[in-house]
């Protein structure tokens, strides 16, 4: 099945790759990429947005071995333990991002990175400190801000971001009023940051009233999304 899947993927990319600006796929798309990095790089030369669901280790290994010069947006969604999230490390995530360091303007990591293997000395690794100078927007799950790697990661790699988007899924208890004030400290860590936007998807703190919270350097705004 893997050989069939690989042949189908390569046939699709060979036929339509140069036309693609956006590619949405599952993690299985990256099965069998070993030795084909050059092929995908050539055929997906105009790719600007890559959106991947059900991410596995193979996705990050494959991306760290190729490069799409025009890529502006990386979006990893619908990822969880059931999809093998314990199978890759923070270092592999970093390696993949570094491949597109000079072109990325937006990164979406919608999975709980508390499940990603973290090694303390990775923070001193040279690859961890490679900046993404064009990156303006970074989105992830709200619970990730509690992980020990999170703020060093932001500080070293995302110094030019203007928006930090955080999605709350109700996985962990969240003292929201206290944390909203605490998140204002991000403006000191990232000088160009204009807004921290929190979207509450599972609204236990607000008794079922969906809210979006915009945190600025000098104020916090609350808004209901629907009724």
Structure description:
InterPro entries: LRR_dom_sf (IPR032675). 25% of the residues lie in helices and 20% in strands. By secondary structure, the chain is of the alpha/beta class. Strands 1-2-3-4-5-6-7-8-9 form a nine-stranded mixed sheet, with no helix packed on it. It folds into two domains: 2-134 and 152-160, Alpha-Beta Horseshoe (Leucine-rich repeat, LRR (right-handed beta-alpha superhelix)), CATH 3.80.10; 162-227, no CATH class. Helix 3 runs parallel beside helix 4 (90-98). The radius of gyration is 18 Å and the shape is elongated.
The pLDDT mean sits at 81
Radius of gyration: 18 Å
Number of domains: 2
**Strand portion, in percent?**
15-25%
**Poorly predicted spans:** 80-86
- CATH class descriptor name of the largest domain: Alpha Beta
Order of helices and strands: HEHEHEHEEHEHHEEE
Major sheet, described briefly? 9 strands, mixed
Total count of helical runs of at least 4 residues: 7
Would you tell me the structural class of the helices and strands? alpha/beta
Gross morphology is elongated
Question: Do you know the CATH architecture of the largest domain?
Answer: Alpha-Beta Horseshoe
